[in-house]
Design goal:
The complex is a heterotrimer of chains A (277), B (430) and C (315). By secondary structure, chain B is an alpha+beta fold. Helices cover 75% and strands 2% of the residues of chain C. Chain C has 15 helices and two strands. Classes of the chains: A mainly alpha (277), B alpha+beta (430), C mainly alpha (315). Chain B: InterPro entries: Bact_solute-bd_prot1, SBP.
């Protein structure tokens, strides 16, 4: 519209974006550089900045050392199940906290937030006791069920729904005789697509990259997630950085794909959705 | 009050579901060790190892030769094996049938030996004579009644040195001459001064390593036989500390942490002349600087000694201690230790094999054909038994921090030492 | 379990809506509780026990491997006079302050820019901004180690090119805090801007169009429309990053090691409690740290919530 007036502003904006992009991407690029060199390249001074020719060799080493595909499959199962479950339960709870009138709404919501404030590091031992009581050690359930719904997601969906959906929309649904669940499913969910996409992406990625808890409960190779498997590339006596970063690089590619899949959902959706509904 | 009342239904639902899930939980309550009934099926034993032990082939061989026992290896990182074992012991379930434990870990676990089987009850006294005495005792409670682990490898200490730097400094490069030149640690420091003056290179990369070697050569370390902490009064520690400080103050060390990638950069640059190393750590040179093959040589250090090494243990949670012990006895027998050594370089803890040709004739091309086998064996003989205690790890950390503070210019050597003593004292209060 | 729960809830709410006997308010109430119940069920199974267990442990002198004796509040008393604890508290706040404020502000601006109509290649920029958070911690550790090394670090190499002395980033307090904060900012700015970006989608576009017609500049629009409209989401990010910042663990562990460095320059509270529990076996003491940390986070979150509300409603 105002293209002439904002020309300089636009140029500055682009320069800013490009700088941020370079800073953001560089370590990922460098991961590829080291992953395609031999290990001594990382320790040279100044270090290598151009990809080498050892990528396939390093990748072959990764595949020989760990069951890469099995681990990726496990991670994929865990991340996908957790993501779907988080999206459903958190948006449902978020909707309830944001728009439904029931006694103790506010107090319970504050309680949900407070649960996020408990430091998790020490919870490892008591949580381990519970999981082991259930017989879930070395079982993917141990990393799926406890994560199936989380305070972060509830908080996020509640805030988003509170600010994005006008009460009138809900009331209109009620006057039409819709059940609460129907309002949630037909009115709320379509209107908060960007929030759901964002939560989905964040959840998927966090579960994919999590290691503290899986490390404790998943010890058998057959149930290793990719982050745990990658750790086994790290020999106690000698660290082959080229191989490790190669494996890490390969393990990041699935998240990139997920990002691109979610990507279309990030933008818009809301305004049209809200108006139409 | 009204609030509470209408909240009741929600509570009922929640409570109902909790009960439901806890019932599910209790009904399939199986332990992590696997469910082996009687019958012909082999007993399945889980074994925790960390990465890089090189035992896999032998375990496979064992599984093939034994129909009644099957070893299932679960590998994690070094630190994770120990935290996972601690977690499982604290939680009361989930421990493996056999776990590898490093010597510092053993000293921590020794305070509560009941978490493990007493291997004396399983017949360990019969094989005690096969192992180095000091190494064996390290996995024993102070009263000598309770044996927690059987020794795997040890880490005899030698010195690798960069011949090119020695040559440039006008020093002899022959390993016997070098060894003759450093009869004491003062000689070693003197050597550093010469190298520094002639070439500008540092003597060592990591001052803490120098400290730990000297520290380990005393009769006592942090604890006396009664288990009292004696850091303050042990002259050997202060001597080791002062030696490390001399290196730092005279600029004879780069002051790097040995686990830091920067150390490797320094290695590749050829920025330091010597590396005092236990057997298992020589891979740091051979793997990180493969191009330097032949540039390095190896010789003995004054006094010899040992650093690190591990044990196989059987946690009490295991249902099959006899079978587990049978496996341990086999894989850590002198015959098998020599196999592991040939394959992976883990130096045996069984002195009877030190005359084996695999050791006496082992030469390393990387180290200019040095007879590394006999160098390690000789160093192992110099090692002695030192009492360790439950807090050895954090005491060592406090003293290492003291050295690092001096490197970083955060405190004067005396201040820094005092800070470490204060901290060690504080830790005891908990 | 997921599937079960899902169908259960669905069935129930469908059934409920058909129950004629209940009036609307009552139905809303029950549905409200049912919708939030999954969280509370899961929390009561996996969350409640650890919290109470930790509280109980904190009242004991408890070796993680076995022995325990009840000591009441002795662990808490010892903490009050423990210099390492106060240091870890100071470090945590210092790193939080250095990283969180600039991070959230930058993230908001970035989101605002990425939401502009004229920007081409949005998908690409969005992905790149998010890359740091995807990049695995292992790689981040290696890379930041290489950047902030004293002797052979890239940053000191550039400093030497412009004639400056090398800085010992790892050895000193300020250097460590700057390095860790940089790492935190690098990892989490894009993450927060993705969150803000989602928030911006909830603002009707006609608001901006109207403002543009009225002659409001982009900067005015940012402060007068964007910020007030996404207030709940700003509160969300402030609370979440307060909690995250107070529990910061991976970054200091990567940069300073488990002990936090020689003068404990990188020792944060979570690192300290982890170290106490797993290295020193002081389970009771570590649990006391955990509880104090919990209380500190609650208080600090309330303070931040209060400030955020004030700022947001200032104009």
């Amino acid at each position: 519209m105002n293209s002439k007036r904002f020309n300089i502003g636009k140029v500055i904006t682009y320069i800013f974006l490009v700088i941020i992009t370079l800073i953001s991407i560089f370590p990922f690029y460098w991961m590829f550089v080291i992953g395609s060199n031999d290990t001594s390249a990382i320790n040279k001074f100044p270090p290598a900045f151009i990809p080498g020719s050892n990528f396939m060799e390093n990748a072959a080493n990764v595949f020989e050392r760990i069951d890469f595909l099995q681990a990726v499959l496990n991670s994929f199962i865990v991340s996908t199940l957790v993501t779907f479950s988080v999206l459903f339960f958190c948006s449902l709870a978020g909707f309830s906290f944001a728009k439904m009138r029931f006694k103790g709404n506010k107090q319970l919501f504050i309680f949900v937030i407070a649960t996020m404030m408990v430091p998790i590091q020490l919870g490892i031992i008591p949580s381990y006791m519970i999981i082991s009581k259930f017989g879930w050690i070395n079982d993917l359930k141990a990393v799926i069920v406890p994560w199936a719904v989380n305070a972060f997601g509830v908080f996020w969906m509640r805030q988003y729904i509170a600010s994005a959906i006008p009460d009138e929309l809900i009331d209109a649904g009620k006057i039409d005789g819709c059940s609460n669940f129907r309002i949630y499913w037909n009115v709320v969910v379509p209107s908060v697509r960007p929030a759901i996409a964002t939560l989905g992406l964040i959840t998927f990625m966090q579960v994919w990259n999590e290691f503290l808890w899986p490390l404790v409960v998943l010890k058998d190779t057959s149930v290793h997630t990719i982050q745990i498997a990658l750790r086994n590339l790290n020999s106690n006596y000698y660290t082959d950085y080229a191989m490790i970063l190669n494996g890490t690089f390969l393990a990041t590619i699935p998240i990139l794909i997920v990002f691109l899949l979610f990507s279309k959902q990030f933008i818009a959706g809301l305004t049209e959705g809200a108006v139409k509904a | 009050m009204k609030n509470l009342f209408s909240f009741n239904k929600g509570v009922m639902v929640v409570v109902g579901l909790i009960l439901f899930f806890s019932l599910i939980g209790c009904s399939n309550n199986s332990s992590g060790s696997g469910d082996n009934g009687g019958g012909d099926k082999p007993v399945k034993l889980t074994l925790w190892l960390w990465t890089g032990t090189g035992l896999e082939d032998q375990i496979e061989q064992f599984n093939e030769e034994n129909d009644d026992i099957e070893i299932d290896v679960q590998t994690s990182e070094f630190a994770a094996v120990h935290t996972n074992l601690t977690t499982a012991l604290a939680a009361g379930s989930g421990a493996p049938d056999i776990s590898l434990v490093e010597v510092k870990g053993i000293n921590k676990y020794k305070t509560n030996p009941d978490n493990f089987y007493n291997l004396f009850d399983l017949g360990a006294d019969e094989i005690a004579g096969d192992y180095l005495d000091w190494k064996w005792k390290d996995a024993q409670t102070p009263d000598g009644q309770y044996q927690l682990g059987i020794p795997t490898d040890i880490g005899p200490i030698v010195m690798a040195y960069n011949k090119e730097i020695f040559e440039a400094a006008g020093l002899p490069t022959d390993r016997d001459e070098v060894s003759a030149m450093i009869q004491t640690w003062d000689d070693y420091i003197e050597l550093g001064r010469t190298i520094k003056a002639k070439t500008g290179s540092a003597l060592s990369g990591n001052p803490s390593r120098f400290y730990s070697v000297i520290e380990g050569q005393g009769d006592q370390k942090y604890y006396d036989k009664e288990g009292n902490i004696i850091v303050k009064d042990n002259a050997q520690l202060k001597k080791a500390y002062d030696s490390a400080i001399t290196l730092i103050e005279e600029g004879l060390t780069l002051g790097l942490d040995g686990n830091d990638p920067e150390w490797i950069t320094a290695l590749q640059n050829g920025d330091f002349a010597t590396f005092i190393t236990p057997a298992w750590d020589t891979k740091k040179l051979t793997e990180n600087a493969p191009d330097s093959a032949g540039k390095w040589d190896m010789t003995s250090i004054p006094g010899g000694g040992n650093m690190g090494g591990s044990y196989l243990t059987i946690p009490k949670q295991s249902e099959y201690p006899e079978e587990a012990y049978e496996f341990i006895k086999w894989i850590l027998s002198p015959e098998q230790q020599i196999v592991t050594f040939k394959k992976n370089g883990n130096f045996p803890s069984t002195p009877s094999v030190y005359n084996d040709s695999a050791i006496t004739e082992l030469k390393s091309e990387y180290f200019n054909n040095a007879p590394v086998g006999s160098l390690f064996a000789k160093a192992a003989e110099g090692a002695n038994f030192v009492v360790e205690g439950p807090d050895s790890i954090s005491i060592e950390q406090s003293i290492n921090d003291a050295i690092t503070r001096v490197v970083d210019g955060q405190a004067s050597p005396e201040e820094s030492w005092q800070m470490a003593l204060d901290e060690i004292e504080r830790l005891q209060a908990r | 379990m997921n599937v079960n729960l899902k169908t259960q809830t669905t069935n129930k709410s469908l059934k409920l809506s058909k129950m004629k006997g209940l009036n609307q308010t009552k139905r809303d109430q029950i549905a409200g509780y049912i919708f939030i119940s999954p969280f509370f069920i899961l929390f009561s199974i996996f969350g409640v026990f650890p919290i109470f267990f930790t509280a109980y442990v904190s009242l004991n002198k408890w070796n993680i491997l076995g022995d325990k004796t009840f000591v009441g509040f002795q662990n808490y008393q010892m903490l009050m006079s423990d210099p390492s604890f106060w240091k870890s508290l100071g470090n945590t706040f210092s790193i939080w302050f250095l990283s969180t404020l600039p991070q959230l502000f930058l993230a908001l601006i970035l989101a605002f820019i990425l939401n502009q109509v004229f920007i081409k290649g949005k998908d690409f920029f969005r992905l790149s901004v998010f890359m740091p958070n995807i990049t695995s911690v292992v790689a981040v550790a290696i890379i930041f180690g290489a950047i902030f090394g004293e002797r052979y670090g890239i940053l000191n190499y550039f400093l030497s090119l412009v004639g400056m002395d090398p800085i010992n980033w790892k050895g000193g307090v300020l250097g460590t805090h700057i390095a860790i904060s940089t790492m935190v900012m690098w990892r989490w700015t894009g993450y927060n801007s993705i969150i803000y970006l989602a928030a911006l989608q909830s603002i009707p576009k006609d608001l901006y169009e109207a403002a543009t017609i009225d002659g409001a500049s982009k900067i005015q629009q940012f402060f007068k429309i964007t910020i007030p409209m996404i207030r709940p989401m700003i509160i969300f990010t402030v609370i979440v990053s307060t909690i995250g910042g107070m529990q910061i663990f991976s970054e200091p562990l990567i940069f300073s090691g488990a002990g936090g460095g020689s003068v404990k320059q990188g020792l944060t509270m979570t690192l300290y409690l982890y170290e106490e529990a797993f290295t020193r076996s002081n389970f009771g003491y570590a649990s006391a740290i955990a509880w104090l940390l919990f209380i500190i986070i609650v208080l600090f979150s309330l303070v931040n919530l209060f400030i955020t509300r004030r700022i947001n409603s200032a104009d």
